[in-house]
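Quick one: structure tokens for this chain, please?
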Amino acid sequence: LRRAEALLWVPPTPPPVLRALLVEGHAPAVRWCHGFYAGVDPIAAIAREVLLPAGIPLSNGRGAFSSSLAEYALMAALHFNKQVARCQQNRRERRWDKFEMSVLRGQTLGLLGFGDIAQHVARLGKAFGMRVVCLRRNASKPDETGLADLVLGPYEGPILPAHKRALLEQSDVVVCTLPGTEETRHFLSSAEFDAMKGGATFVSVGRGIAVDESALVAALPRLGGAALDVFETEPLPADSPLWEQPDSKLLLTAHNADYTADYFRLGWRVWRDNLERVGRGEPLATPVDVGMGY
């Protein structure tokens, strides 16, 4: 271990184990760390307090699981637009209910964040004929993908409530892909859910910390529905009000939207790409901005 030049953090390994390896002299030769997940919020403090001062770069699994998460987001949009819960209830009750179904074509897809996951969501949304609007921390950053019909956000300074409202008020489907940082804590709360269109669909596949779950529960009656794969506390406590919401309003999964048959192969591929770059002395493929937390 003392000869190890790299450390790989694979959850659910407790973050204190990584900290101990680094600060207690067990791995003095380390010159690179990698987080298997795209989200590195559990080790963000270690990155700031230990890795950054020591000049040890951190990379993550960004991009490994974007495709599956994008599929989940579009599945959720279809689930509520086609009223799948109603269809299932009708079948159980032998009811011939010829209701009008919504279509995604022509709807506005609002993306909170425009990183790799959101770009995959945008690509699928475009395939369904949706208009894509995104909110990003720096609206002046070029959209090299060409997927966004409209980019919202500040050109400098923080994201303001007005920036959020500008996206939420026009979006039929809102997908949150934000990372877990202090800046994104309860990024969506009562004011934001109130700003959403009545009947809109909300999907959360970033980090649970970004969503005020109590505010979401209060807003559900006026929304078309919400699909949550991530939560503030995981596993979701048995006494959470989320468990009590009707099928017609809430689709809930256990942070497994990206847990596919090829999950580990995809994660290892990103790790190997970074490993080979380190060996060649090249920049990391998926570097983490420790100051930003993602």
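The chain is about 35% helix and 15% strand.
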